[in-house]
Amino acid sequence: MTPPVNPYHGLREPLPAALSGFRQESAELDGVLINYVRGPESGPPLLLIPGQMSLWSSYRSVMPELARRFTVYAVDVRGHGASSWTPGDYSWDSAGGDLARFLRDVIGRPAIVSGNSSGGVLALWCAANVPDLVAATVLEDPPIFSVEMPRFRDRDRWVYASLVHTAEVAENGRPADIFRQDIPIAEDKSIRMPDRFVDLLDRLVTRHARRHPGRPASLGVRWLPRSLDETIRAVSMFDPDFARAFVDGRFYGDFSHEAALRAVSGPVLLMHANWNRFVKHGLVGAMDDDDARRVRDLAPQTVYRRIDARHVIHDDKPRAFLAALTDFASHARV
Questions:
Q1: Where are the alpha helices (DSSP H) in the chain?
Q2: Which of 272, 264, 252 is nearest to 124 (CA)?
Q3: Strands 45-49 and 111-116
Q4: Mean pLDDT estimate for the chain
Q5: Secondary element (H or E) of residue 183
Q6: DSSP secondary-structure letter at 29?
Q7: In the prediction, which pLDDT does 173 show?
Q8: Burial class (CB in 10 A: 0-12, 13-18, 19+), 93
Q9: At residue 2, does pLDDT exceed 70?
């Protein structure tokens, strides 16, 4: 069977008015197209790497403020957005290699590399593998250690199961179904969106598709939170094999989080969001306090910031994210 091709490969769309001065570009890097948005020249380069099933646009609320101090680059990782899909070829090394080439060939000088979630692990990969291209590393609630096998599959089962769900939704072509998932909030209590509300979202997506054939999915309304629409859009522009590679083990290769942390010599900022751990579900979040402590033990130069926020800190608590990053950059002198 022929592998699926990204239907939005290289797609260009108008940027929001709030991103005046930014422009969308793309780079062909060893046969992989990487879509990115670049801000005006205004200081040291800052590379923003979104997490799994997130797009560059998840950063758009913080990009204007960041552009006051940094030359901002926000990318779509392979398998996401308008970047290439590479089914059968998803791993820390392949996705990290894209970013190493991006740092070398597009940015062209050492950059602050900031990643959220799996993007944070990719930022760590870059710091360990191409240290000459990384001036400092920002780890925004990364699943360091928690997505290593067999722990990911056997101990932290809820996040593992959520990726199984993500792959199924991305493959079935009904993006609103991403919200049909229980989220544990106590040992024997979970919450989820009401099915009737998700059905409404599905109808809105279907109506938008009729009116805008060939475009990424959208709710097409302004009276619902932008975060819902961002998720819907991201699911529609996501290769399900990216998530499958996490589930079946292809993604990991021989990349050791511990070895990478030991190898990093430059400045590191770790932002740690809220988390829970339940006997029934394992970790609900990206990392627990033991994981965060282990990061600091292995990379003692790490600056630690505990932030009362959901997993995507830059979207949930943008001011806290901006304050932590800019203060870190000032003290790291980058």
A1: 63-66, 92-102, 118-129, 151-154, 157-172, 195-211, 226-236, 240-248, 257-263, 289-298, 313-316, 318-332
A2: 264
A3: parallel
A4: 95
A5: strand 183-186
A6: E
A7: 84
A8: middle
A9: no
CB atoms within 10 A of CB 312: 21
Q: Per the structure block, which two tokens stand in for 126? A: 């870059």
Query: Which long-range contacts link 63-66 to residues 24+ away (Cβ below 8 Å)?
Result: 63/19, 63/22, 63/37, 63/39, 64/18, 64/19, 65/318, 65/322, 66/39, 66/322, 66/325
- Would you state the structure tokens that stand for residue 304, as one six-digit string? 């630690």
Amino acid at 86: T
Cα(239)–Cα(173) distance, rounded to whole angstroms? 11
φ, ψ dihedrals at 69, nearest 5°: -120, -30
Interatomic CA distance for residues 68 and 75, integer angstroms: 19
Cα 14 to Cα 18, 23, 65, distances in angstroms: 11, 9, 20
Give the integer Cα–Cα distance in Å for 49 and 76. 7
Nearest CA to 118 out of 249, 329, 312 is that of: 312
* pLDDT band per the 50, 70, 90 thresholds, residue 175: very high
Angle at 80 between CA 74 and CA 81, to 5 degrees: 70
Burial group, residue 69, by CB count within 10 angstroms (0-12, 13-18, 19+): middle
d(CA 55, CA 170): 14
pTM value > 0.85: yes
User: b/e per residue, 247-277, with b = 16+ CB within 10 A?
Assistant: beeebbeebebeebbeebebbbbbbbbbbbb
